[in-house]
Amino acid sequence: MIHRYDAVIVGAGGAGLMAALNVAPYASVAVLSKLYPVRSHTGAAQGGIGAALGNLEEDHWEWHMFDTVKGGDYLVDQNAAEVMCRDAIEAVYFLEHMGLPFDRTPEGKILQRRFGGHTRNYGEAPVRRACHAADRTGHMILQTLYQQCIRHHVQFFNEFQVLDLLIKDGRAAGVVAYEIRTGEIHVFHARAVLFATGGFGRVYKITSNAHALTGDGLAVAYRRGIPLEDMEFFQFHPTGIYKLGILISEAARGEGGILLNRYGERFMERYAPTLKDLAPRDVVSRCMYQEVREGRGIDGKDYLHLDLRHLGREVIETKLPDVTDFIRTYLGLDPVTDLVPVQPTAHYGMGGIPTDVDGRVIIDDWKTPIHGFYAAGECACVSVHGANRLGTNSLVDIIVFGRRAGQHIVRFLRENPDWPDLPGDAAEPAQAELNRILTGSGGESIAEIRRLLQEYMMDLAGVVRDEGRLLTMRRHLEELRDRYHRATIQDKSKQFNTDLVEAWELGCMLDVSEAIVESALARKESRGAHYREDFPQRDDVNYLVHTLAYRCGGPGKVEIKYKPVIITKFKPKERVY
Amino acid sequence: MEVTLKIQRFDPEKDRKPYYREYVVDVEPTDRVLDALHLIKWYQDGTLTFRRSCAHGVCGSDTMRINGRNQLACKALIKDLGSYITVEPMLGFPIIKDLVVDLEPFFEKYRAIRPYLINNDPPPVTERLQSPEQRARFDDTTKCILCAACTTACPPFWANGRWLGPAALVNAHRFIFDSRDQGAQERLNIINSNEGVWRCRTVFNCTDACPRGIKVTEAIEQLKRALLVRRT
């Protein structure tokens, strides 16, 4: 079945919905989601959205920008960070006007709280910048944007899995998607395509990410020759619930929670004397790893304690109600009286499909675009997060760049009224891959391959890396890919075949892992979330550059190139907190 | 521990009507029902079909009837359910396959109550002001994740699929009691219809079922009172 829309948006989280709202008044737009839009992972974001409103104390977007650049270990493109932090203020007011129920100050303004790495006056002390609605800020953003999409009659295709990106003569021509309910293949012919497909945390064993976050958009683009930028930078959030990875918001520390080792010591004081427990996530996660390695984990094991008890029941239950519920439900503990076992959990990919500040996908160092192809949100790399994202900036990113991408799509559609041709047999490669999976007879198990991938990635390409581990991971990937091609699935039916969808997703996870591992191998330094034990120092002489990983030829064949970091206001300095 | 899951199955391409099948899995007492379903799907029977995504109770994908009660499979722990667990799809919507039901009728009801802020005044340069007290009035109903657990636990809904149902009313409440909204009268008219708020029999099943702890019945009672006040 062939559909025609001026613009097709893949993904219905914050970035996709924000873009849709900006395109819908001017052009026909279809939004595809592999879930229902309100199931998107934006809804799991907890703590807040950062913007220098200054509602409780002095704040400036320049301070926010500085924190973002420093938090990203100077790998941030500063032109993009400037756009984001400046636009963040207006973006938050926009959300409020759309109905987002922020918590309020006694005067009725938007309430703000502290968050990791957000400081006043260029690093002096924590600042109240995170605008929030309890610890369900992402939920409120997702609901508010979906509500507005209903109001503006945005056309949704729910439970449609994207399979392929169509490119004709250097221009995006649409996407191929699989309708999960019927098993039908659909071709969406479009003049502009936006990928807002979210993250890929499911490549790791312990993760805060939803099952759906398998890197589909990145893998689809990567297979079509589009590079992936800075994939070696993957953030581990310090406070995942032990063994489960479920996120305990940084807001828990923003409200005053502290981390303790087995001796009850507040160890972050030793590592980051100024910001302590509110140092950026890469720093805190690495310190936790160090504590565990030196035997100071709880009972000598691989976890530590988050202590919220001194905050008191009132603060815990009103400021952190969802987190409290998670701890009570999944651990059977009460944060009012108990210490909470936590360990770093795979949380956010800083890397992704390279874009400029208008969401246009840029495939090299010379600003070459794929005309009509856009990306926004976690699947994109603008790069505003550099080597490590600050808390709250993911929500800023999706709103600011989702909107800018939408606005640029409108301009692009006006300037390019012609329709790109559809490639001949547009659906053929995607259909062939599904048929291959459906008819596979080698007997290997998708679940087993996925389990091994997640375990290996956690151990070998996680918080701490070195060449030996990464080379081992490269070999594992070869072997897992080989097994993947010999996999057999049990469900051969057409309707709602999630067995097939999961198998297809695993192919994406393998490709995304390949880009992570090859990018990490090539970067022989430590910066932000990428920590190489064999190269523990940052090396600005050789590596103050963005990585671009291209697939050349086929699986396993990766070419690594680099492009310069855009530095405007803040020269790279040593990063201390 | 070893537990048996008795799961209602239905494959539209093969089966004329649903049937039950039992699976035995080895799980921890602290595991979620979702973990058990995954163990079955991944290692025993890949054809078992259900929705899920976030796996920690915030996305609302995996609502199902577990031991006869609507719950999210990712929030229902094995230790609270015993060693013999019955899993069935939500009641009241057409079954697509196994535990997956057609949610379009559910979202249609949601859309019917105009679930978006209606305010036709030009917005100020900064935020619209709202006091913490005004904000608190509708806090409870902002938590809704549209999982459908309340609506499909509601006896009047089982009897009459046209009734708006608790989830749509929760979302009507979220806007009607928001001091920034100007669409209250319009929405009150909608919920005052034949298939509106008065079909609620105050059974409290919705409140029991809500995985977010929303006091659904109370919200519906507040809507009824708002309608009465308007009339007087």
Question: Can you give a write-up of this model?
Answer:
The complex is a heterodimer of chains A (577) and B (232). With 577 residues, chain A is of the alpha+beta class. Among the domains of chain A are: 258-342, Succinate dehydrogenase/fumarate reductase flavoprotein, catalytic domain (Flavocytochrome C3, Chain A, domain 1, Alpha-Beta Complex); 428-549, Methane Monooxygenase Hydroxylase, Chain G, domain 1, CATH 1.20.58.100. Chain A has helices spanning 14-23, 61-71, 78-97, 137-151, 216-223, 251-254, 268-271, 281-293, 312-319, 321-331, 393-415, 428-439, 446-460, 467-484, 498-522, 540-543, and strands at residues 2-10, 29-33, 49-50, 112-113, 119-120, 125-126, 130-131, 155-158, 160-168, 171-179, 185-195, 228-229, 234-241, 258-260, 304-307, 340-349, 353-354, 360-362, 369-375, 380-381, 545-551, 558-564. In chain A, the strands form six sheets. In chain A, strands 1, 2, 8, 9, 10, 11, 18 and 19 form an eight-stranded mixed sheet that branches. A four-stranded antiparallel sheet of chain A has the order 13-16-15-14, with helices on one face. Chain A has a three-stranded antiparallel sheet with strand order 3-7-4. In chain A, a hairpin with a 5-residue loop joins strand 10 and strand 11 (185-195). Chain A is globular and about 65 Å long. The relative contact order of chain A is 0.17. Chain B has 232 residues and is of the alpha+beta class. Chain B has two domains: 2-101, Roll (Ubiquitin-like (UB roll)), CATH 3.10.20.30; 104-231, Alpha-helical ferredoxin (Fumarate Reductase Iron-sulfur Protein, Chain B, domain 2). Chain B has eight helices and seven strands, in the order ββαβββββααααααα. Chain B has helices spanning 33-43, 104-112, 132-137, 155-159, 165-176, 184-191, 205-209, 216-231, and strands spanning 2-9, 19-26, 63-66, 69-72, 84-88, 95-97, 100-101. Chain B has a five-stranded mixed sheet, covered by helices on one side. Chain B has a two-stranded antiparallel ribbon with strand order 6-7. In chain B, helix 5 packs across helix 8 (216-231). Chain B is elongated, with a radius of gyration of 20 Å. Chains A and B meet through helix 3, helix 4 and helix 10 of A and helix 1 and helix 3 of B.
